[in-house]
Structures are given as structure tokens and as C-alpha cells.
Design a protein that fits this description.
single chain; Chorismate Mutase Domain, subunit A; D-Maltodextrin-Binding Protein, domain 2; six-stranded mixed sheet
């Protein structure tokens, strides 16, 4: 009969059963691949971003619809995350606690089936990966509003870890509390960067409320559980995990607010064809030194996407530059530019070539 849903629902049930059967068939192949990888190299990373990118690009390219192409990526992110967990545990260290934006970036990259290890500092993230207690680490590197995270840059000076990938995470700040009643709020807590990113909104809408800095946005949400007069600026995920009510969504001053995160590993990823290379170098103190440093990139047709300077901490007025360029160090033009620059540097370190965020 017209309007009868039962027939369509039965068809959906049949299709869902078939999807489940095929997922299990896919999983059997994944397990065999895991056995082969371990036989070839017991210490190899099971996560292969080049293969994952190829799968998603192929599926998006041949999608006839009506299933939206933009939904294919998150769906297959979870399928591949679950598949990797069958091959072996994927341990990911990150700047915790749960429900921080770093945690959200981890889930965007590795899905919900990875084993996440929250730690208390960026230094601890590096340490967990260096000691082999985690396969990967995820740390913030820069924000579109507040700029670079200097502590992360400093850690690369002495670390032997490589950059394995990057994640761009949209940062949307929400005001939340236990009761959800704005009139009850006497204090707002959050991480210093989150407060800075919402300063105009706070001064306009809650100018007389005390603002207090805490270790993380997630810690702020946790505090709200104990006192109805305290509000937190945190993520939507934090509201869900800590049972809070959102009083006002998206209070960040800049709606185009993103944080870039780096994925750390002891091993390099495979080349994908859409890669980025990061370098750390120190130049001789002379007139035109920075120009001479950048010229080989331009002459070899390489686009530079970032340059940041930091004091070297080893000699007064000596600076180390962190540079991101498009391309992989195995590409002839990139390798040629790096070789040209080496002779002009006091110090150079290649932090890795890795897939650019898609």
C-alpha cells in the first residue's frame, strides 16, 4: 500500500545483513595482511596512510550517489580503525585528558578503535613514543588564532622522532555547565588558549564573571561536575562525556578557528604523492643569510607553507628555523633543494616527509 514502510524496512534489514557479512569478509583479509606484515617486519607500523588515502580516493571517485561522498571518509575511517585493531593494538599517546581537542584530532586520524593513552605534557607524548610504549603520538603545533605551540617546536630539537602525519582539527568552543542556567554562573574555567580564543565573547556577554585558567578544556568540564556555579569553555565531546549542558555553542571569536596537530612515530610513512616535508635548520649570521636559505626552494619550484624561528637555547642570538615545504624528500626537486641548503647551514635536521592533511 502507498505509505507502507514495512517493505522498505525489510529491504534495509537485508542490505544491512549483507553489509555485515562483507565487513567480516573484509576483516578476514585484513587479519591475513597483518600476519604478512609482522612476518616481514615485526616492528613495522601497521597503519599505512598511503593505502588508506588510495582506498578513500578510489571510493569517492567512483561513488554514483545518492550516498554523500563527504560521508565516505568518516565511515571508512571507522572501518579501517576497527580493521587495524584486528591486526594488532594501535597505541596512540596524546596530550590529555579525554575530550580535549587533541583527543578529537586523534579520533579523526585513527578512529575510535585505537587504544588512546592520555598523558600530562607534550614532553610525555614524545617520551611514550621514543620508549616504544606507544606506536604514535599526537601533539598540537599551531592554531590559526593563537599561533605556534613553542613547546612542541622545542621538543623536536633533541628528539629523534619523525613526523608521520598531520591533522587539522576545527576548534569550536562551547560554554557549558552542570545546570545549563547561565544566570547561576559565577566563574568560567578553561585552558588559557581557549579563553584567549573566546575573549571578546566573554567580555561582551559575561564581563563581570571571574575567569580562571586550568590545565585543559577537559579539566574545566570535569570541575563543572562538582559545582553548578562554574561554567567551562570546552568541546561538544567534553559536554557529552562529562554530562554537561551547553548554554551557548560556538563562542570562539574567530569562526575560522583550526588547530594543526602533528602525528609522531619512530618510523617514516610511505610516500603518497601528496606529501609535505618539514625541516629544522640553523643558518650562519650574515647579511642575506635567510634569503640565501630560501632561494633553493624557489629555484626548484617548491612551495614553502611555513617558516617559524625559535632561539636555539645553545648560543645567544642564534636561531633555529622550522620550515614546511610541499613535496617529499625522495622527489628529485626537493632532494636537490635540501642538498643546496645543507652547505649554507650550521645545522640541519629533516623532521620527516608525510601525507599532507586532506
Amino acid at each position: 500500500m502507498p505509505g507502507d514502510l514495512s517493505g522498505y524496512r525489510k529491504e534495509i534489514d537485508r542490505i544491512d545483513d549483507e553489509i555485515l557479512r562483507l565487513l567480516n569478509e573484509r576483516s578476514k583479509s585484513v587479519i591475513e595482511i597483518g600476519h604478512i606484515k609482522k612476518a616481514q617486519d615485526a616492528a613495522a607500523n601497521l597503519h599505512t596512510p598511503a593505502r588508506e588515502a588510495a582506498i578513500i580516493e578510489r571510493l569517492v571517485g567512483q561513488n554514483p550517489g545518492p550516498f554523500p561522498s563527504e560521508a565516505i571518509r568518516p565511515v571508512y575511517r571507522e572501518i579501517m580503525s576497527a580493521s587495524l585493531s584486528l591486526e594488532g593494538p594501535q597505541k596512540v599517546a596524546y596530550l590529555g585528558p579525554r575530550a580535549t581537542f587533541t583527543h578529537m584530532a586523534c579520533m579523526q586520524k585513527f578512529g575510535s578503535s585505537a587504544q588512546y593513552i592520555p598523558v600530562h605534557s607534550i614532553k610525555e607524548v614524545f617520551n611514550e613514543v621514543e620508549r616504544g610504549r606507544a606506536n604514535f603520538g599526537v601533539v598540537p603545533i599551531e592554531n590559526t588564532t593563537e599561533g605556534v605551540v613553542n613547546h612542541t617546536l622545542d621538543m623536536f630539537i633533541d628528539s629523534n622522532l619523525l613526523i608521520y602525519g598531520e591533522v587539522l582539527q576545527e576548534v569550536s568552543h562551547h560554554l557549558m555547565s552542570k545546570s545549563g542556567v547561565m544566570e547561576e554562573v559565577k566563574k568560567i574555567c578553561s585552558h588559557p588558549q581557549a579563553i584567549a580564543q573566546c575573549r571578546n565573547w566573554i567580555e561582551t556577554h559575561m564581563p563581570h564573571v571571574l575567569v580562571s585558567e586550568v590545565a585543559s578544556t577537559a579539566r574545566a568540564a570535569e570541575i563543572c561536575q562538582e559545582d553548578v556555579t562554574i561554567a567551562a569553555i570546552a568541546s561538544e565531546l567534553a559536554a557529552q562525556l562529562y554530562g554537561l549542558k551547553v548554554m551557548k555553542a560556538r563562542i570562539e571569536d574567530n569562526l575560522n578557528n583550526f588547530t594543526r596537530f602533528l602525528v609522531l612515530s619512530q618510523k617514516p610513512p610511505q610516500r603518497t604523492g601528496k606529501d609535505k616535508t618539514s625541516l629544522m635548520l640553523s643558518i650562519k649570521d650574515k647579511v642575506g643569510a635567510l634569503y640565501d636559505l630560501l632561494r633553493p626552494f624557489a629555484s626548484n619550484g617548491i612551495s614553502m607553507t611555513k617558516i617559524e624561528s625559535r632561539p636555539s637555547r645553545r648560543k645567544a642570538w642564534e636561531y633555529i628555523f622550522f620550515v614546511d615545504v610541499e613535496g617529499h624528500m625522495e622527489e628529485e626537486r626537493v632532494n636537490r633543494a635540501i642538498e643546496e641548503i645543507k652547505g649554507r647551514c650550521l645545522f640541519m635536521k629533516i623532521l620527516g616527509s608525510y601525507p599532507a592533511h586532506n
